[in-house]
Amino acid sequence: MERGKRIQHILMEVAQARERVRQQKPLIHEITSPVTMNDCANITLALGASPIMAEEIREVADVVKQAKALLLNMGVLKKERLRAMYCAAEVAIEQHIPIVLDPVGVGSTLWRTTEIRAFLQTIPVSIIKGNSSELYCLLETTHAGTKGVDAQDEMQLEPSFWQDGAAYLHATLGVTGKNDVVADATGAIFLQNGCATLPYVTGTGCMIGALAAAYSSVATPFIATAAAIMSMAIVGEQAVGCGPGSLHATLCDGIYSLDKDSFFQYGQITTPMKV
Ligand SMILES: Nc1ncnc2c1ncn2[C@@H]1O[C@H](COP(=O)(O)OP(=O)(O)OP(=O)(O)O)[C@@H](O)[C@H]1O
Ligand SMILES: Cc1ncsc1CCO
């Protein structure tokens, strides 16, 4: 498809996904870190979906059976929660519902890196959403490279690197940072919205994961990932001038008000000349 037409087509599908979430109010099962559990629940509600947070191993299977998508956020990872994630993921696979993985902080310690890599070798996920340091770590062989949970200096990697990475991991990748990228095995796009204050609010990436899970219940993994990143980045851009505290609240208000026209009006997508 010609590049301009492809971008219009993506914007149209993203806009449709936004409408569908409002109409269908899908139930989304989210297992997240305690740092951002409340943020993920609220942003899911603001989008128009319905979150349920459950991580007790004796009930996760029953919760997944009712859900339309599963979010697994590996922040503050611990053994018990990881066991619950395996259990939830196995049921999600049986139920044919999409799994979104947020490998928070992968690369920061050997234990976390080993566990997250092992998880990905066992569980097929639809979407992996992470900052550029986290996703780079999943595609290299050493575990060093991520400091804490935030992206390090912006990585200028070719889109073909992420496209090959998506093929290798058998998932759509949502790579966030100053320049956001969405890639699957067939291609990659750049998303150019955002604001420099977003990294000063913890959990903006985690909330993108929650949005991706909600969108994935009504759209393809590629469109769901693009919709999630664009939603957060457009709303962040419109909140320019806010400090971190007011930005946090404004993001939730912005997602609530975001409608299909916002994507056509403000969405900045580019496609590489050659992937
Ligand atoms: N320097 C920047 N300029 C503009 N937008 C940015 C910048 N850095 C990040 N963003 C935006 O912030 C959002 C979150 O991305 P980021 O990579 O900071 O997530 P994260 O590190 O996973 O967050 P967290 O771990 O706190 O949940 C994205 O929408 C991205 O576009
Ligand atoms: C700060 C922090 N530490 C573990 S998870 C988390 C939230 C951002 O991912």
Residue-averaged pLDDT, rounded?
94
Cα end-to-end separation: 13 Å
Please provide the count of β strands: 9
Main beta sheet, described?
9 strands, mixed
Small molecules bound in the structure, each named once: adenosine-5'-triphosphate, 2-(4-methyl-thiazol-5-yl)-ethanol
The helix tally amounts to 11
- Number of spatially distinct domains: 1
Q: Describe the strand arrangement of the main beta sheet, using strand numbers.
A: 2-1-3-4-5-6-7-8-9
Give me the strand/helix succession. HEHEHEHEHEHHEEEHHHHE
Features:
275 residues, binds adenosine-5'-triphosphate, alpha/beta, binds 2-(4-methyl-thiazol-5-yl)-ethanol, magnesium, nucleotide-binding, single chain, UDP-N-acetylmuramoyl-L-alanine:D-glutamate ligase, magnesium ion binding, EC 2.7.1.50
Explain what the structure shows.
Its EC number is 2.7.1.50. InterPro entries: Hyethyz_kinase, Ribokinase-like. Catalyzes the phosphorylation of the hydroxyl group of 4-methyl-5-beta-hydroxyethylthiazole (THZ). It is a single chain. This protein has 275 residues and is α/β, with parallel strands linked by helices. The protein has one domain (1-270): UDP-N-acetylmuramoyl-L-alanine:D-glutamate ligase (3-Layer(aba) Sandwich), CATH 3.40.1190. The protein is 51% helix and 15% strand. The protein is built from eleven helices and nine strands. It has helices at residues 3-24, 37-47, 60-66, 79-95, 110-122, 132-138, 159-169, 204-216, 221-238, 244-257, 260-266, and strands at 27-31, 50-53, 69-73, 99-102, 127-131, 172-176, 180-184, 187-191, 269-270. It has a nine-stranded mixed beta sheet with strand order 2-1-3-4-5-6-7-8-9, sandwiched between helices. Strand 3, helix 4 (79-95) and strand 4 form a beta-alpha-beta unit. Helix 3 (60-66) packs parallel to helix 4, helix 8 crosses helix 9 and helix 9 packs across helix 10 (244-257). It is globular and about 45 Å long. The relative contact order is 0.16. 2-(4-methyl-thiazol-5-yl)-ethanol (TZE) binds next to helix 8.
